[in-house]
Amino acid sequence: MKFYNLIFAIILITAFSGCKSNKESSEPPISHHPSPVTVPKIKDIVSPHPRLFLSEDQLDEMKIKIEGDAMLSGWYEEIKKDALEILTLPPSRHHLRDGIRLLSVSREVVRRMYTLAFLYRMEGEQKYLDRAWQELEAVAAFPDWNPSHFLDVGEMSHAFAIGYDWLYTELNEDQRSVIREAVIAMGLNPYLEGSESGEGKWVKNITNWNFVCSGGVGVAALAIGTEEEEIFGKVIFHVMDNLPYALESYAPDGAWDEGAGYWSYGTRYLTTFMAALQSATGQLYGIPDSPGIAEACYFPIYMSGLGDRSYQFGDGRSRRVSDPSMFWLADHFDNPVFGEWRLKHISEGGNNPGFFDLLWYKPEFKDNSLLKDLPPDRYFRHVEVVTVRSSFGDKNGFMAGIKGRMIAELHHNDLDQGSFYLEALGETWAEELGSGYYNAPGYWEYSPSGLRWNYYPKRAEGQNTLVINPGPGADQISDAQSGITTYKSYADKAIAIADITDAYRDHASKVWRGLYLGDNRNTVSIQDEIVLKEPGEIWWFMHTKADIWVQEDARQVILEKNGKKLVATLLSSEPASFSVVEARPLPSSPKDEYWDPPEGLKKLAIHFEDVTSVNLRVAFTPFSDGNPENQAENKLIPLENWADIFN
User: Fold this and answer.
1) pLDDT digits (tens, 9 = 90+) for 242-254
2) Domain final residue, candidates 305, 339, 355
3) Is 363 inside a domain boundary?
4) What value does the mean pLDDT take over residues 328-350?
């Protein structure tokens, strides 16, 4: 078991971030209305070393807790196995794996430092101390920590903070000086320079970059603050000045524009910074009072699917998300359902437990009754995502999601307005494609004409949405003002309607898409109402890895996956039929030399030509051996009437 996966491993390779702007560049966005926080002073640091997260008194309490709980003992033994493995490895070396990022090295140093320093504090064996120092000495001799990709610096600074603080009393003054000088020269000073000049990508940034860069450096400043008071004061001022811009991104409902994977990455570094503040000073300086943070853990919970996957839009991967920070947030906000979710994920083998799980776990998290009683549906404003499901705990039911908006030039977004996601019967039927190749030319260009929109997984044709009048340019308008206009949740059904007209404003005067979970939460329908400004072409796409059996009239298909079957039935105001096409760009689209469809991936498609208006509905129902054509309602109810009809 890799402790790297337990504490600070991120689901994705890296995290370029951003938001609305019209500049054709990869510069991060700027927010203008941050939440106020106060700034720590050096006199606020009242705790001696070790002051980060785990005091000596807390260490004694942890030993007792582990000895008295078989589950926690098992967690600890896995961490110890990892420590023994690290003892056999050579020190990390400066290596840019892809020629751009040191991030994999930084994360490995984080893993090693937490594991070795924790084991030394728990068991006192010299071999752990010696190996930890060997790692610190080697990395302190690096020429730099790769400030051109500052996430690398943020994570490495965090690693050195742990080594310095947790081993402080065992290191001699020369060793401490080596660590401090490295942190200052390669971590704090570059952060200070970028903040003062305004050129740092984390400055006023509203994405995960801010939390990782500012949070990682902030923990390092707290670690060495009492020995380096002047630079502590300068750095912590900029940390607290920058953080509120990203804190605003949780508002109003705790969701994250970059998806659940990047929610986890950013929230982890924010939470560890808050926990470090609390342990070092006893204060949190207003950070948790920012709107949306108290609800933030609902986002990965509701984006989760029925099993081990999540609805991960943008550059996110599909696996289910949880994080040790959910334990801390559950305790701080007195909302144990967050802790229940984290523990459930660990118990089901979805994530390996690590140090912060041991530290922040509470026995009350074992009661998963709160999860079962959660409302099955949720609408996240601003991000404009709705997810619905049969119920939490029903792995053979239905779960679906719809996205009504993309944030123009947010660094992990797709042209995915109106895209939907579908799980049922324990399988995923409508797939998200995740990221493209991060180092592809222009991948981080987000303007309406940016090269990002040349890459298939980022285009509308690479989503489960509509393409109107396809061509070589972007197939949705990236700065569109789209969103969810109707959301209703009832005991036996749920509806959500997105007005995505603005995404197609060059071609259409109306594009609405509705999602309906009905039949006692046992069917899902996607319904579109489209009015074009002049006769044109429309494509309806759904990416799937299921086998597709098109029925005789081509208005119904049977989807089959791992022995499960789902029926899709088409109703349309215009002549239409299902077809199966390759998951590749249309002939008129830009070629994407970096896209190679995963094995088994294909598209269920509906194609209209020379039409001015279309109303269509695709209903997904469980297959039975009876009469599949009778399994869906044979009527189109106008979307504007849904709220009344389905009430």
Assistant:
1) 999 999 999 999 9
2) 305
3) no
4) 95
For residue 496, what is the enclosing H or E element?
strand 494-499
Answer yes or no: is 637 within a domain: yes
| Residue in the block written with tokens 């320093």 | 117
**Sign of torsion, CA 124 125 126 130?**
negative
DSSP 8-state assignment for residue 291? T
Tokens of 291: 């709107």
Please tell me whether residues 415 and 548 are part of one structural domain.
yes
Residue in the block written with tokens 């971590």: 187
Q: How far apart are CA 109 and CA 267, in angstroms?
A: 20
| The token pair that represents 581 in the structure block | 């096409």
Residue recorded with tokens 């890296």: 14
Q: Which of 305, 324, 354 is the last residue of a domain?
A: 305
> How many structural domains are present in the chain?
2
Q: What SS3 state is found at 452? A: helix
List, for residues 467-524, the tens digit of each pLDDT value: 999 999 999 999 999 999 999 999 999 999 999 999 999 999 999 999 999 999 999 9
Q: Is 349 exposed, middle or buried (CB count within 10 Å of its CB: 0-12, 13-18, 19+)?
A: exposed
Contact (Cβ atoms closer than 8 angstroms) between residue 642 and residue 495:
yes
Separation between Cα atoms, residue 607 and residue 462, nearest integer Å: 15
Burial 268-304 (b: 16+ CB within 10 A, else e): bbbbbbbbbbbbbbeebbebbebebbbbbbbbbbbbb
Domain containing residue 498 = 378-645
Q: How far, in Å, CA of 538 to CA of 540, rounded?
A: 7
The DSSP result for 178-212, as a single string, is: HHHHHHIIIIIHHHHHHHHHT-STTTT--SHHHHH
HSE-up (13 A, CA, CB side) for residue 638: 3
What type of residue is 359? L
Contacts of 13 (CB under 8 A, 6+ apart): 101, 103, 438
The rounded distance, in Å, linking the Cα atoms of 214 and 193 is 13
Which value, to the nearest 10 degrees, does the dihedral of the CA atoms of residues 185, 188, 194, 196 take? -110
CATH of residue 581: 2.70.98.70
Q: How far apart are CA 484 and CA 496, in angstroms?
A: 7
What is the C-alpha separation between 481 and 366, in angstroms, rounded? Answer: 43
3-state helix, strand, coil in the chain (%, to 5): 40, 20, 45
pTM higher than the cut 0.85: yes
Distance CA 264, CA 320 (A): 11
Model confidence at 95, pLDDT cuts 50, 70, 90, reads very high
**Dihedral, CA of residue 626, residue 629, residue 635 and residue 641, to nearest 10:** 60
Instruction: Give, rounded to a whole angstrom, the gap between the first and last alpha carbons of the chain.
Output: 50
User: With contact defined as beta carbons under 8 Å apart, do 359 and 341 qualify?
Assistant: no
Lookup: tokens for 624: 């039975």
Rounded Cα gap, residues 229 and 251, in angstroms: 34
Domain assignment present for residue 43? The answer is no
Distance CA 186, CA 157 (A): 8
CATH of residue 293: 1.50.10.100
At residue 449 the predicted structure's pLDDT band, cuts being 50, 70 and 90, is: confident
Do 289 and 384 share a structural domain? no
Q: Cα 248 to chain center, whole Å?
A: 16
User: Considering the domain boundaries, does residue 330 fall inside one?
Assistant: no
